[in-house]
């Protein structure tokens, strides 16, 4: 596997020529850079839309579904964010690529359930965008199990992960989680709550680790408790990471990515050693 991007994610070299990607951006510089980078990395020929009208025409002209859109917030003919609203209303997965950013804008963007946002404020912007695109196009290879006795919490985490294109299973108890893991050996990440009525998160982690090692499965513990010792207990029980609720989307996605990246790196090294 070859490394791609700044975060250290691994990319297998798979091409995505079948993916239909729209780039709604009026800057000649950025459209040229994005087009060139995605072609050389993934063999993707993107569709460039330099105005809101171009975007509408591009959507209407073909019945082929749009896999992913990369959109500036403001386009000619849509100076108040209408292009992004248009894409969201059509339920098209969208990464926002923008040079205008502040906290209030961030809150509005995340409320729209976008996939990600990338800022144009550094020399690595296009590489970061390419990495975000690659993650979205490859996240389906990862199967994630959410374990929580709260239906609301399960739904929230599930919607977040599905927004990023992960395959997701859910369990309302530790016992159910063990059943799902036994039937789905492709699960690579478990996100489990601590406080559950049958088997708490610590005991669930111990039982998982009795048969599945960190080289096969990563475990992230979560809790709404203010007890800072919980993180230490989760890690001692065999967990790989821990997060206190409430957490923001960016942190959650980053932690998920880091754990799955580590899993792939470990598995890659084990394969190389087995061949050697």
Short recap of the structure:
This protein is of the alpha/beta class. 45% of the residues lie in helices and 19% in strands. The chain is built from ten helices and twelve strands.
CATH class of the largest domain: Alpha Beta
Strand order of the largest sheet: 4-3-5-6-7
What is the share of helical residues? Answer: 40-55%
Radius of gyration: 20 Å
The largest pleated sheet is described as: 5 strands, parallel
Characterise this structure.
- By secondary structure, this protein is of the alpha/beta class.
- It has two domains: 1-136, Response regulator (Rossmann fold), CATH 3.40.50; 141-273, Rossmann fold.
- It is 45% helix and 19% strand.
- The chain is built from ten helices and twelve strands.
- A five-stranded parallel β-sheet has the order 4-3-5-6-7, sandwiched between helices. It has a five-stranded parallel β-sheet with strand order 9-8-10-11-12, sandwiched between helices. The chain has a two-stranded antiparallel ribbon with strand order 1-2.
- Helix 4 links the parallel strand 6 and strand 7 (116-119).
- The longest helix is centred in the last third of the chain and has 27 residues, at 249-275.
- The protein is globular.
């Amino acid at each position: 596997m070859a490394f791609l991007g700044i975060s250290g994610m691994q990319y297998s070299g798979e091409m995505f020529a079948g993916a239909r990607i729209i780039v709604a951006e009026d800057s000649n510089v950025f459209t040229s850079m994005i087009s060139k980078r995605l072609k050389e990395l993934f063999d993707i020929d993107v569709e460039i839309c330099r105005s809101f009208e171009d975007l509408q025409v591009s959507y209407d002209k073909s019945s082929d579904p749009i896999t992913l859109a990369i959109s500036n917030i403001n386009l000619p003919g849509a100076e108040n964010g209408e292009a992004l609203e248009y894409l969201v209303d059509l339920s098209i997965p969208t990464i926002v690529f923008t040079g205008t950013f502040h906290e209030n804008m961030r809150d509005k963007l995340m409320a729209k359930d976008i996939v990600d946002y990338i800022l144009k404020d550094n020399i690595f912007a296009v590489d970061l965008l390419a990495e975000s695109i690659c993650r979205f196009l490859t996240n389906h290879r990862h199967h994630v199990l959410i374990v929580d006795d709260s239906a609301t919490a399960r739904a929230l985490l599930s919607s977040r992960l599905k927004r990023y294109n992960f395959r997701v299973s859910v369990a309302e108890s530790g016992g159910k989680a063990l059943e799902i893991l036994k039937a789905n050996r492709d699960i690579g990440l478990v996100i489990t709550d601590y406080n559950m009525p049958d088997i708490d998160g610590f005991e669930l982690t111990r039982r998982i680790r009795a048969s599945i090692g960190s080289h096969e499965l990563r475990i992230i513990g979560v809790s709404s408790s203010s007890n800072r010792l919980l993180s230490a207990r989760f890690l001692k029980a065999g967990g790989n990471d821990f997060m206190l609720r409430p957490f923001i989307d960016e942190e959650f996605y980053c932690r998920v990515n880091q754990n799955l990246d580590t899993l792939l790196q470990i598995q890659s090294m084990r394969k190389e050693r087995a061949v050697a």
